[in-house]
Amino acid sequence: MFLRPRSLREAVEALATPGIQILAGGTDFYPALGDRPLSAPVLDLTAVRELSGIREEQDAFRIAAGTTWTQLLATPLPRCFDALKAAAREVGSIQIQNRGTIAGNLCNASPAADGVPPLLALDAEVELMSRAGTRRLKLGDFITANRKTERWPDELVSAVLVPRTIEGPSVFLKLGARRYLVISIVMVAAILEGDGKGRVSKARVAVGSCSAVARRLPVLEKALLHADMKSGIGDRAEDKYLEPLAPIDDIRATAAYRRDAARTLVARALEQCVAG
């Protein structure tokens, strides 16, 4: 069974089909399928117009779940979104960016998902819909482990909501074995908001690929408050602030290398936030 609804209401109703799988951009769906034929019902969301586009609301930016990375890059957004746009340019090739969706990147729940650290730094929330209604979860609560989320089988992600909690320059940095088309060893997103007098009034720092899920560094964020927004701010990225991270050894890097690289990238991201 292959269902392709044209409205969000029809899509939510179709989720009642036992064992149905959701297909959006397909950039994870088809590689995971490999050479095997489809063995379960499929819900194709690509014709649902309500799941595409970015809208500015009174208290938040609403990124519809099916919005592609290319659409995100083409949308004028405040500077705090620069890190997310930089991450968008790192999501595979241009062809993948044309098809891959924002929500798909989150639902895949890979520890190396490029979109997660910038969205964590933006205090993003995930909106989920089912026949029972709508609920919202903080992104940090939505992704619970490697490849696991809090989405229930009868739900779909309808939007990613970015509240207006922070303004200012943002930076995304990614370390991999090569420059392009690579799974990250470490990635960092940072946002700094100034108080108008040259000091930090708000700070957000998130690190990916160094734990089963991407992590914010709240103790470092607190330590950055009232710091001068000038060269040298990266020196505040001390090892003790990386304690929430739990890197592992794998074929791409050792845990020790990841931890050291994370500290270096956090420092560089903070420096780049104040460089302009």
Q: What low-confidence regions span 5 or more consecutive residues with pLDDT below 50?
A: none
Query: Can you write the helix and strand succession as a string?
Result: EHEHEEEHHHHHEEHEEEEEEEHH
Could you say which structural class the secondary elements and strand pairing correspond to? alpha+beta
Q: Report the mean per-residue pLDDT as an integer.
A: 96
Strand arrangement within the widest β-sheet reads 4-5-10-6-7
Fraction of residues in β-strands: 15-25%
Assign the CATH superfamily of the domain at 170-275.
CO dehydrogenase flavoprotein, C-terminal domain
Separation of the first and last Cα atoms? 53 Å
CATH topology value of the domain at 170-275: Enolase-like, domain 1
Number of helices: 10
Return Rg in Å. Answer: 19 Å
Reconstruct the topology from this structure.
Layout: E1 2-3, H1 8-14, E2 21-23, H2 29-33, E3 42-44, E4 54-56, E5 60-64, H3 69-74, H4 82-88, H5 94-99, H6 102-108, H7 116-121, E6 125-130, E7 133-138, H8 139-142, E8 143-145, E9 148-149, E10 156-163, E11 170-175, E12 186-194, E13 200-208, E14 215-216, H9 218-224, H10 255-275
Parallel strand pairs: 1-3, 2-3
Antiparallel strand pairs: 4-5, 5-10, 6-7, 6-10, 8-9, 11-12, 12-13, 13-14
